[in-house]
Each structure stands twice: as structure tokens, then as C-alpha cells.
Amino acid sequence: MGYEITHWIDGREDAGDSASTQPIMNPATGGEVGTLRLADEATVDRAVQVAVAAQETWAKVSLAKRTQILYRMRQLMIEHTDEIAEVITREHGKTIADAKGEIARGLETLEFATSITQDLKGGFTQDVSTGVDAHTLRQPLGVVAGITPFNFPAMVPFWMHPIAIATGNAFVLKPSERDPSASNIVARLYQEAGLPDGVFQVLHGGKTVVDALCEHEGISAVSFVGSTPIAQHVHATASAAGKRVQALGGANNHAVVMPDANIEFAAGQVASGAFGSAGERCMAVPVAVTVGDAHEPFLAAITAEAEKLVVGPGDREGTDMPPVITPDAKDRVVRMTDEAEAAGATILVDGRGLVVEGFEGGNFVGPTVITDLAADHPTYTDEVFGPVLVVMHVNNFDEAIALVNSSPFGNGTAIFTDSGHYARRFEDEIQVGMIGINVPIPTPVGYYSFGGWKDSLFGEHHAHGPEGVGFYTRQKAVTTRWPSQNETVESSMSFPTH
Ligand code: NAD
């Protein structure tokens, strides 16, 4: 029923070589809206062969021409933002404004990639020895794959493909099977922008496709974003197959609230980090750490913030918080709240049992605020990935640092304070990849790089920005001498020392 989403191979819709499908659901209604074709190994192999051939030609296209295509793509993305936001809201559930926000953030990386001429400039040194020059150049890897999560169906793929393509690679995208449609629109727009067929392709499916891409000899590198267990699996599988891998995993981001902070401001910011997009962001803020006297006023302020949020479908005007992605995701939030309560925690704001009138079949759960929870309880230590904020209380700054650093995750963190001294110590001592000072969701802009530490990233490279260019290219160092025809250069058997 509804629409059918197929793969995008060699510049056209392609049903693939397998009859296997799965339903595409609307999280706000709980109803089926479409059907997704799932690829098998044969379809993966076919797409990779197309990509290998396309990449050989694409790598020879001038930088000027590549850049012009990216500029056209940017314009088309802007013109089609409403269309893409609508399908994201239908399949993911997030609000239209949030969907447009992720498209705009994704475009930052495309905009960065339009300046690839700057990033591909190598170094040059004249006369490293007399009459000998040295220079460097960066070349594409070949065909690279991107495997992406449900929570940002536009932005996260955009962290990858504009840079991969600008640097001369072909890109095979395997988006989340939960919200697949945006990727097919992007494929169509790339074609309209003038990108040769086969340089950007989309394969749909789950583990079968992921494993086939990680093991295919035609794939040189794999970029992954998703949960930690799958990041570890992809990192291990693709590394064992000799590929370059960057695998970004899950998170459990803490915001530290110091007693000197503007508590109302901090509570508003933490609420947006905890409950925006129903907490389904890798840079969400599921934990607030109140220091000393900040605790009581923060609890009062965050309770007020949570209680005023309007929960509803993402395409309804006035909705602050949308549904979560699946009935399972909703059950997980309810179960982890139940378990915290059974362990003696205080449920300050309770999102369980919330029903949105007219949307009884939707995956709705309200904002939830929990405190008085032990530091080893799974509702605090694990990633809930829903609209749940756990407030932990510590006595001083050192205890806050120790608590944040005890998490196995190290994606993002924030501190709310008026003190430059504590802010500076925080950024120095915290073992986390992305840090906000009075900023709750410190997602780096497209021309910086995005990546966490510890169980939030496996591999050497962060995503997009300069590290993205490094990931999708290999460097050569060239040493050159042009002796004249009649010049005599003495040869020596000893190692050259210039
Ligand atoms: P997920 O790990 O379930 O899925 C991610 C991708 O892996 C999807 O394309 C999916 O099809 C594929 N996949 C799922 N199971 C697989 C398996 N057994 N074998 C091989 N491939 C498999 O993640 P999700 O639920 O789509 O997204 C939410 C998670 O992603 C959260 O943990 C969130 O923190 C994380 N995330 C992290 C970042 C980051 O930058 N670190 C960004 C966004 C999301």
C-alpha cells in the first residue's frame, strides 16, 4: 500500500534483484505509508560495479566542473527543501521546522565541499636539496560507502557524500530503512545538477546490505553513523576486509550546570537538548549534572520547561515534541522509566501514558524528568534515545568532571557557567570530542569536523570538514629533479641526506 521506494542505481530507480520488502511507517499515526525494496548481495554487487566504472571517469573531471555541479546541487536542495522536509516528517516524525533545520545543517557540508579547490591544494617546497623540489597531492580512494541512522535522514548522509564526491570518489549510500525516501530525492537532484550516473547511488536494506558493502572488494572505505554495537561491528568487519573505516557510535551526553550559571537560561537550553526531536539526536542532552546549590532551582526550572511542551504530530503547527520512531522505542522509554522508579528514583515529570487525541496509534511519549537515581543504574548509564532527562547531583566541579568522564561514551557535553576559569578547566579536562560552553548541542559547523571519543567513534577520522577531506583522500609526496641533458650528477650508494 502507499508508495514504493526502490534503490537508485546507475541514474535510475531500480527494484533490485530481490523480491524482499518491508513497510515504511508513519510514527505519528502508526500507519503504513509505503513499501521499501530491500537489496540482496547481487544488487549490492551490481551497484558497486557501476560505481567502480563511474568513478574512473569522475576522478578525471576537472575541479571547476565538479564544483559547478555542487553549486547547482545546493540550489536544487534549497528549492526542494519543503518536499524533503515533508517526507522526513512523514517517515521520521520530527517537526517540519526540525526537518528543515537538518537539511540546512547538511547543506553546510555541501557548501564546504564547493571550496574543495582550497582543500585539495597540496604543499610545495622549492630546493629541498639543490635543484630538487617536493610537493604533495591528494587523490580519491575509489568507491566509498556511507551507512546512516534513522535520526537524521538528510543531514548525516550530507556529512559524507558532498566531500566524497568533490574529492573524486563515487559514493554508495545505505540509509536507514526507517526513513528512506529523502535519500532517493537527493539522488534525483544530484542527477538534475549534472552529476554523472553511478557517482551517487542508493541501496536500501539492513544487515545484508551493510555486511555486503563492508566486505565488497570494490569498496575502499566505509563511513558509518549509528549505535555503538553496530559501529563496532562495521568497524571490525570493514577493517578486516582492508578498508578505511570511520564508525560513529552512540552517546549519553551530559550538561553540567554550575551554581553560578543563569539557571533559567540553562534549563531552557537543556530542555531543548533533552526533548527536541523527542531526544532522538546523537547530540541530545539526556543527563544534567547539577553542581552544589544549582540542584533545587534547576529542578524547578526544568520541570516548568518540560511541562509546557506540546507533544503532537510533526506536521501540526504548534508541536514542540514529536513521536519517537517506533513502538519499540516508545516501550524502551516506558520500561527504562519504570525501572528507574522501581529503583527508588523520583519521576518529576512523567511522560508515560501520554495519548495525543486523534493519534492514538502513534508512538507518543511525553517529556520525562528523573532524579535521585544511582550512578550505576542503566537508565542513567545507557543511551535511552528518547525524551528522558536524568538529573544527577554532585557536590563540586571535580565530582562533575569525574562523573562525565566515567561514561563509556564521549560524544558531546556542555557546561553552563559564568566562570571562565571553570569553563577553561572543563574543556581541558573533559574526555569528550565536542564541547559546548553555555551551548547545549555543540554540533560543529560543516567546515569543522564532527566526532566523539571513546565508544562514540571507532576509527581515526572525524566526519566532515578537514577530517572528511583526509578520510576520503590519500596523499602522495613527490620529490622532483630535472637535471639538464648534459649535467653530471654524482651517484652515491649511501642514503641521501640532501
Ligand atoms: P542503528 O545502529 O540501529 O542503525 C544504523 C545503521 O546500521 C542503519 O543504516 C541500519 O540499517 C544499520 N544496521 C542496523 N542493524 C544492523 C546490523 N545488525 N548489522 C549491520 N547493520 C545494521 O542506529 P539507529 O537506531 O538508526 O540510530 C540511532 C543511533 O545512532 C543512536 O545510538 C545514536 O546515538 C546514533 N547516532 C550517532 C551519531 C554520531 O554522530 N555519533 C549521529 C546520529 C546517530
CATH architecture of the largest domain: 3-Layer(aba) Sandwich
CA radius of gyration: 25 Å
* Major sheet attributes: 7 strands, mixed
What strand order characterises the main sheet? 15-16-17-14-13-19-20
Topology:
Elements: E1 3-5, E2 7-9, E3 12-14, E4 21-26, E5 31-37, H1 41-58, H2 63-79, H3 81-92, H4 96-113, H5 116-119, E6 124-129, E7 132-140, E8 143-147, H6 155-166, E9 170-174, H7 181-193, E10 200-202, H8 207-215, E11 219-225, H9 228-240, E12 244-248, E13 254-257, H10 263-275, E14 287-291, H11 295-307, H12 327-342, E15 346-349, E16 368-371, H13 378-381, E17 388-394, H14 397-405, E18 409-410, E19 412-416, H15 420-429, E20 434-437, E21 453-454, E22 457-458, H16 465-471, E23 473-481
Features:
single chain; 498 residues; Aldehyde Dehydrogenase, Chain A, domain 1; Aldehyde Dehydrogenase, Chain A, domain 2; seven-stranded mixed sheet; 38% helix; binds nicotinamide-adenine-dinucleotide; EC 1.2.1.27; Ald_DH/histidinol_DH; oxidoreductase
Can you offer a commentary on this structure?
38% of the residues lie in helices and 22% in strands. It is of the alpha/beta class and 498 residues long. It folds into two domains: 3-249 and 464-478, Aldehyde Dehydrogenase, Chain A, domain 1; 254-437, Aldehyde Dehydrogenase, Chain A, domain 2, CATH 3.40.309.10. α7 (181-193) links the parallel β9 (170-174) and β10 (200-202). The chain is globular and about 90 Å long. It starts with a strand and ends in a 17-residue tail after the last strand. The mean pLDDT is 97. The protein binds nicotinamide-adenine-dinucleotide (NAD). Nicotinamide-adenine-dinucleotide (NAD) binds at residues 147-152, 156, 174, 176-177, 206-207, 210, 225-227, 230, 233, 248-251, 282, 383, 385, 411, 452, 456.
